[in-house]
Amino acid sequence: MKVLLATQKPFAAKAVDGIKEILVSQGHEMALLEKYEGKEQLLEAVKDVQAIIIRSDKVDAEVIAAAPQLKIVVRAGAGYDNVDLQAAKQAGVVVMNTPGQNSNAVAELAIAMMIYISRGQFTPATGSEISGKTIGIQAFGNVGRLVGAKAKALGMKVKAIDPFLSAEQIEAGGAEPVAELKELYSGCDFVSVHIPATPQTIGSIGYELITSMPKGATLVNTARKEVIDEAGLEKALEDRPDLKYITDVAPDNYQRLLERFPLRVFATPKKMGAQTAEANINAGLAAARQIADYFATGNTKFQVNK
Length: 306
What we know:
Blueprint: E1 2-7, H1 13-25, E2 29-34, H2 39-45, E3 51-54, H3 61-65, E4 72-75, H4 85-90, E5 94-97, H5 103-118, E6 134-138, H6 142-153, E7 157-161, H7 167-172, E8 176-177, H8 181-186, E9 190-193, H9 207-211, E10 218-221, H10 230-239, E11 244-247, H11 254-260, E12 265-267, H12 277-297
Parallel strand pairs: 1-2, 1-3, 3-4, 4-5, 6-7, 6-9, 7-8, 9-10, 10-11, 11-12
Helix pairs in contact: 1-12, 5-6
């Protein structure tokens, strides 16, 4: 089978070598499309492939239609909102992600940003410590549990909410379970968001939730920018001069927020959650193994478009 590694934001060279080694050892061919400048290059590259590995690259209905032999797409990472799942399903294409491979990198970034904003973005002004504070984790999956463990190691109290987990499961993961979302926000100095962007969650974190947070609280977003109601966020920051917002996914109104609320907002220059050498390699190799296993055994364990 021919497998296309299509990444505008390339993998580390070590990851590319590892991906190729896994695929070739299983009798597959790997084609490489890195740093491509336009969709036309991707459409041309997919014409004769049976599998695609991507990072943040978009595989929409047009890309799927241009790949008549396509059987599987693997997103090297946890999020998969850059793939048109319905179009893939209609075309009989399996879509997978690689959950857990980037989790530690994202969790470390969330903690680092919390410290950065708490210390006044490393300006000479007096900051504060995160030890002794309470963190609420919205969605207690792979990343959320790691954030909780690291926060607890730094002396924080950890609370969590997850509609897919029981209170007992959350407790077993090291956090105090919270039943209602507003209770999480109102009872925590930091809230770390780890929900996916779905029709139910897009724009779900807005003015009411944000302003329910206690004095001096910080909202932390290493998930997707779409889950934040940006107008509601701006109004909350305006009405509550004690609140802060830090994110790995800059909102569309970021420059205006920076101008209006200096030292109270921060966004990484480019999504950095998975930008570590370790996560880069882990996710890429996992994607290659899943494709090889799918063609060898039909394993669809990580399929997200069933």
